[in-house]
Specification:
Blueprint lengths: L20 H21 L1 H15 L5 E5 L1 H18 L6 E5 L19 H7 L8 E5 L6 H12 L3 E6 L5 H5 L2 E4 L14 H20 L16 H15 L3 H11 L2 H10 L2
Parallel strand pairs: 1-2, 1-3, 3-4, 4-5
Helix pairs in contact: 1-7, 2-7, 3-7, 4-5, 8-9, 8-10, 9-10
């Protein structure tokens, strides 16, 4: 049986240029409603991956997102949000895109077609068998991602893929295959749409769940967030007020002295 890319099949809609703006928006939204249901069906595989990541991360392992184009950008995006949100150093979750940082803003010709370059990119970070490599590829055929997973798995890393096609080549080389079947895109083949939305949801689920299990959240609050602007200082101050019953000004002084809600609260309680 030959491999068929569902994500590349013709759109369910036609003559898009003849539609009104309202029709376009309504139909795109109708398709987007399918994404969360597709992600839900993949929860067992996502759960297996998160469980494996946490076990490895507790021994010093890291997460590497690998992708090209939209998929690569979404991996870099998720990785970049971890330090400010959870106070983790940038080296714990790393996004690598085919073609390097230039590819974040501009297409880099043939970057995704090299099956060996991904491992070279990973070696620059001292990849080891405690690490997890997650390949993101809507098509499921991206050579850069397939090469990353093939080589990482051969070196003892935990490997997973996120793809929009069942039984894709990328699934064959990954230990855990997260197949999120969202169907044809509204604009035929434009995987920045439903596929990209689903990839963002899955990356959110993976990294947020891992950070919670790693103790970076208390209750439902980002107690380790970086205080990088006035809004976050205010949010952190209010957390300290709620936790310790201090005045706003006293809580703010304590927060700024220690640099995070968790450190402020722990230091205050340790001196009681």
């Amino acid at each position: 049986m030959s491999f068929v890319k569902i994500s590349e099949q013709p759109s369910l809609y036609n003559d898009l240029e003849k539609k009104s703006v309202h029709e376009l928006l309504t139909e795109i939204n109708r398709e987007d409603h399918k994404v969360a249901d597709a992600v839900e069906k993949a929860i067992p595989q996502i759960e297996r991956l998160v469980t494996g990541i946490v076990e490895r991360m507790r021994r010093g392992g890291r997460i590497f997102y690998m992708g090209a184009g939209t998929s690569g950008r979404l991996g870099v995006l998720d990785a970049s949000e971890i330090p400010p949100t959870f106070g983790m150093a940038p080296g714990w979750i790393i996004g690598i895109i085919a073609g390097g940082d230039t590819a974040l803003r501009n297409a880099v010709e043939n970057a995704e077609d090299d099956t060996d370059q991904a491992w070279k990119d990973l070696l620059e970070y001292g990849i080891n068998d405690k690490d997890t490599v997650i390949g993101i590829a809507a098509s499921g055929t991206t050579p850069y991602v397939i090469g990353a997973l093939r080589d990482a798995r051969a070196h003892g890393c935990l490997t997973a893929c996120v793809t929009s096609n069942p039984d894709a080549p990328v699934s064959e080389v990954a230990e855990i295959a997260i197949e999120m079947i969202v169907g044809p895109e509204y604009v035929t083949g434009s995987s920045r749409m439903k596929s990209g939305t689903g990839q963002k949801l899955i990356c959110n689920m993976i990294s947020t769940s891992v950070m919670i299990k790693m103790g970076r959240v208390k209750g439902n609050k980002m107690v380790n967030m970086q205080l990088t602007n006035k809004k976050l200082v205010d949010r952190g101050t209010r957390m300290v007020v709620e936790e310790l019953g201090l005045s706003y000004e006293a809580a703010k002084r304590l927060l700024l002295l220690h640099g995070s809600v968790k450190k402020a609260v722990d230091a205050y309680r340790n001196q009681e």
